[in-house]
Design brief:
Layout (H helix, E strand, L loop, with lengths): L1 H20 L9 H31 L4 H35 L2 H33 L3 H25 L5
Helix pairs in contact: 1-2, 1-5, 2-5, 3-4, 3-5, 4-5
Keywords: Membrane, Transmembrane, Transmembrane helix
Length: 168
Amino acid sequence: MPVVLASIALVDAALAGFRAATGRNGLIRKRAYYVVAMRRGLAGGAAVLGCLALVLGAVLATAPDPGTRYTGLTQAGISMLWVIGPFAAVVVASLVGYAVLPRRPATFLILLGLGPLTLIRPWVTVAAGLTAAWTALDLPTAVCTVVAATSVLAVEPWVHRRWYAEPA
């Protein structure tokens, strides 16, 4: 469960870097520009995941029964995945379709899939965090789920402010 959620968070962070850079550069060929932006987002996401790992490690280390706490955290992760999983599957399907389809259908797929999904992404993330917090077995687990959801949402604004607040 931790690996699946971390993988989704890292892909989201890379796409957050892309979104932060979109519309900030007048170049015609922007591939290298967007690759750098995605790397920046990925680095920010990895830093956030590292901090979350430290928090979760501290929560597990200070638990009276670490095995029970780990089970609670895993169940909270499963709750998050029930909310985020379908969303992530549609995003991956849109990206795969964009990569393999001819230009016009691929563009239509991106506009149909990723356009609206980008708008609801924060709401899905908040819903996942709140669902996991609501179903959590204890308060530390609930707090960890809310912190995790908030941290994922903080990557894009940070990347935007750090590198892309001014047009290039």
